[in-house]
Structures are given as structure tokens and as C-alpha cells.
Protein: Coenzyme A biosynthesis bifunctional protein CoaBC
Organism: Cohnella cellulosilytica
Amino acid sequence: IGPKPLAGQRVLITAGGTVERIDPVRYITNDSSGKMGFAIAEAARDRGAEVTLVCGRTEATPPHGVNVIRTDSALRMRDEVMSRLDGTDVVIKAAAVADYRPASRADQKIKKTSDLLTLELVRNPDILQEVGEWKEARGGGPFVVGFAAETTDVEKHALDKLARKKCDLIVANNVAEAGAGFGAETNIVSVYGRGGFAEHLPQMTKRAVAERLLDIVRDARKGSSER
Ligand code: C5P
């Protein structure tokens, strides 16, 4: 292996939380910091990949030397991801995409007129699942890695997402654990893949998780091309 093992490879990474607008000054978002996705982007860049980073709302500054695409809502993020799939070798979806968005966005700031205000939400598309379906319809496409932030039954939910969203790997973290998940500098993850593959990583910096994950992706891609 040379010093730039991912040279010539296109890697698309999503990071951060989506922002779902309620009115011009208010929105729904989540605690995702973007740090895990940024660490993967840096690691892939340092291995020589051509990296596109599709970002939602993030606390951290995106790394240099990668193509940064800023998005806000899940719908916009979907468009940015889907329009770039052709020619992409690896997709890593570390973004926390909102499951629901306001059914309509008010043009003006909502005034406080009544004591009870009901906000109607509609389901967002599942981008990871659409990527899996895109691949299935075409009979091929990028190697796809999903993330799963769970607070209970981590393995069960991760394996369910691996199958349902048709991913090649799922990286699961228990966001309720200390030293893992949103905002933290470290993470504690388990990686699940096809054919019963499972690897449980100890607490590590997000960069170290990123490096190990790229090694697992490399080995899994090699395995599938040799099959
Ligand atoms: O939210 P959930 O736990 O199902 O997220 C698992 C994976 O699916 C993550 O990689 C996330 O980025 C992706 N996802 C998505 N679109 C959604 C919800 C989740 O791409 N609407």
C-alpha cells in the first residue's frame, strides 16, 4: 500500500444536523456537531481521496482540502447527495438527518396569538435508503456506510438498518454513553457489515475511529471485488 491508497477515489461524506425551518427566524435541529463526519473527511483526504463533504448545521469548522457543500434541510441534503452519486466510489452518511419537518413553512414570523400552538410535522425522505434503492435500480454504485445513533438495543437497531437501508456497513454508537456521540471528542462504536461482520471498537478519538473505519471499508470493498 502506497502513502495515498485512496488516490483517484471519490468519497462523499455527510455531516452535521439538518435544519428544518418553521418560519423565517425559527427552526428544528438536533445535537449533531459534525465532528465525526469531519474526522472521516480529513482521514479520507489524507489518504488521497477526492472528498466532497455535504454539511448541514455544524459547530466545528470543516477541514481544508475538501469540497464543502453547505445545505440546511433534509430535502436539500437529499438533492445534493443524490445528484452526486454517479461517479462516487464511497458514500459515508454521518449526518443526523431530521426524521420530520414542519408540514409548511410560514412566510412571516408566527405571532403568539393563542395559548396552544400545534406544529404539524411530515416525514422526511430517508436519504440513506434512497441511495440504497438507487444502487439496486442501477445494479451497482458506491459502497455505502450509514451511521446509527441509538440509546437502546444498539445492535438490534443497527442490524435492522443495515438490512432495511441496504447499506454495506453500519456504524452504531450508543449516544447515551459517556465519551460517545454528539459533540464529544471521542466515540465508542461498533461496525456491522454483510455476512455477520461485527467489530467493536474501544473508546477512541473520532479521528482514530475514522482511520479504522476507512480500513474496514477498504477490506470490505476488496472482499466484494474478489467474490
Ligand atoms: O436516523 P437513523 O438512525 O435512521 O439514521 C441512520 C442513518 O440513516 C444515518 O447514516 C443517517 O445519516 C441516515 N438517514 C438519512 N436520511 C434520513 C434519516 C437518516 O440518510 N431521513
Summary: The mean pLDDT is 94.
